[in-house]
Amino acid sequence: MAGVDGRMWSVRRNIEWSLPATGDDFEHDVDGGRGAAVLILSALFFFWVVVIVWAPAQVHIPWFLWAVGLVVVLFFPVRWYLRRPWTVVAETAGNYDLPAEKWTGLVRGGSKAKEELRIVVRRLRMQGTPAHADSPLQPVN
Asked: Looking at residue 29, what is its pLDDT?
């Protein structure tokens, strides 16, 4: 897309599947890892299979309890997906008069990333720069 100054900009967003390690989050990086999560989740799954299989045939579980159970089971994976960080990147190769630039930033949530992309495109078309001082995008060069 063309900016107000005539440079062609490439603006994109990418989902980050793993959180980047920062100095502030170092203490929180140490956890049980995937092995501990798999062990706990498999133990919970086994527990509920045993409870359901050993239930007497006369026990009737209403449909709304199944629905509540499904909501509880799906809450954290859906929340995890919706709160993933997205990397927003705006870059240009420059032109004869103006240098190449690359701006990048991290935004949490898909809808916020889409909105930030719209803001970047609008700022490029109106002002020629992808971000302002308190924007999540910062120059990389």
From this structure: 53
